[in-house]
Amino acid sequence: MKKxxxxxxxxxxxxxxxxxxxxxxxxxxxxxxxxxxxxxxIDETGYRPNLLARxxxxxxxxxxxxxxxxxAQAVFTDPYFPCLTQGIARGVNSNNLTLALFMVHSExxxxxxxxxxLGTGLVDGxxxxxxxxxxxxxxxxxxxxxxxxxxxxxxxSNQVYRVDTDNVTGSYLATKHLLSLGYQRIATxxxxxxxxxxxxxxxxxxxxxxxxRTIDRRLVAYGDYGLESGYHxxxxxxxxxxxxxxxxxxxxxxxxxxxxxxAQLRVPDDIAIVGYDDLPPAVQANPQLTTxxxxxxxxxxxxxxxxxKILSGEPPESHEIVLPVELVxxxxxxxxxxxxxxxSAQKADxxxxx
Amino acid sequence: MKKxxxxxxxxxxxxxxxxxxxxxxxxxxxxxxxxxxxxxxIDETGYRPNLLARxxxxxxxxxxxxxxxxxAQAVFTDPYFPCLTQGIARGVNSNNLTLALFMVHSExxxxxxxxxxLGTGLVDGxxxxxxxxxxxxxxxxxxxxxxxxxxxxxxxSNQVYRVDTDNVTGSYLATKHLLSLGYQRIATxxxxxxxxxxxxxxxxxxxxxxxxRTIDRRLVAYGDYGLESGYHxxxxxxxxxxxxxxxxxxxxxxxxxxxxxxAQLRVPDDIAIVGYDDLPPAVQANPQLTTxxxxxxxxxxxxxxxxxKILSGEPPESHEIVLPVELVxxxxxxxxxxxxxxxSAQKADxxxxx
DNA sequence: TCTTTATTTGAGAGCGCTCTCAAGTAGAAA
DNA sequence: TTTCTACTTGAGAGCGCTCTCAAATAAAGA
Lengths: 354, 354
What we know:
homodimer, Rossmann fold, about 15% strand, elongated, DNA-binding
């Protein structure tokens, strides 16, 4: 099973290398009988084009890179990245591309990795998932004009193509839900190192504003999307006696739940809780979490679609795609005893099943 | 910032393309002054070699592929794959390779993907994680002599290089632990579609054999490593009134836990439970899970190391690396009230902290 | 019938790198 | 000084593909 070349296939079919290339690539102007003859040789020999040679000649690798910062604990405790990756993989497959995965453990490594990619022709473009406020390499990407799509928001939002979910509305819905249920001391566990965290806090604030309420800073604690951080943040909040808490990730909510449990507080009777993400942990939790569902997989899929457009030279009109989110009402907020009621984000309210 | 070639760098430094190539690749016999001069030009211009051209010329892409079957729900509910991927990424980084990720959603796609990789020169080798008994493409890989390392065990174990954790011993330890605590009706939630599941069942059986006990088939239920399946399996077992259950994955154990909760059974008072994996869910559970810890990340890292050895032409002596596992005693088995006590697998017993 | 135009093919020049081979240089040995 | 053995460099032939260009052929129009 040695590797054949176009040349050899051509010889076997009695045509030139160029003609075989045309058949392989579905080029139009070929006499049917010739196409068929060549195709038969290809089928019989099991010829497969050498992708590297093709890439070199065409100046297009058909490989796109995915950059994931794995420094964050969240990568392991949170199904967010697997879901996202799944969506990206779907996108990649349906566009006949290959996905190169770059997991970077630290900022230095991030920098190093990015540099080792740039200018090497290995990838045609990049999907960048760092939600970190300190993305040092975005300018680098811009400088080298490496096409890329960012997932989430960053400091450079206006200069880049990005796909995101509507974090502001999501948090707004979550908080408004708690407000509308009559809770008085609604705490939040936010994050302050990343952009989505900022947006989610904004949504929280917006809901408060709408209800003419002011935020009590003592009811705001911070985590890093990891489970442990949710636990610690909740412990910090408990002395302030909140009657509800909006936790900006389901995973942190699980941690918070444990803290509440240890403090002998019942959910939702003593304190209501709303999460964010609607990933499996939301359902695994006890009680199941009322949360905000965001279309994570679709985010990944659309990021690829966007990148493909850019690469094909017809960049999308808008620099950003912001996907809608929805409130999913379960037991943890105290609104219902049973589960899984979904409200559309557009309507900015929710319904409860009979 | 247009792309430079070796030729151009050579011209700038007043040497030939070949010499620049030697400097770039750290070739020994170069006059220091020349090396320095060339290096300076490289630094000043920011030259980066075109990886594709290099690969084509050297017949070595330095890309290795990772095949993950994402059909299984477990990919999302279980941090197993993220951990494994993390280890693989570490290995890849430290060997200056690039990782290509192939997520396949179905068997057909698996087949299609594999074929689209074979013979294209894109990857030098593969890491295959499918634990499925029906791996249709392993023979294909062997036929095309594509170097690969399998994670876990498969039907072709004796013909391939593989890295695995000691599933038999792990389950043995878990089961023995329950036996030694005096439980009488020890059920298990196993899996029957994959090889690790077989091994884990074997360990369960071995422990029974050692204690001169026979397995009651009514106390054996099956899942697929996903959370939901654990729930259903447990519901199926409850009528048999087990007083303990060994669940062959933490994620399934979470599902089982929910079923028990619904049935108003207290853990560990009414029924003890032991999981497998020691991934974050084990600690997130309530009560925290006694479980078997396996070095997942290391498995990935070693798989890369093994593949690198094979690619370098000096294949490892042994066809398999089996990593040790250990019992971690927490609250769910009823042995202790507090958490996290680790026993070494080698000793095949455990200690409890004061 | 003779152009004109469209279709079909092959030749050949790269893509940017590696790697062998041979030539040139220098230092050690004779 | 001559010869032999490193060491150091450049020339050049690919790696397997794409893509332009022009030649050859066929179809259509005048």
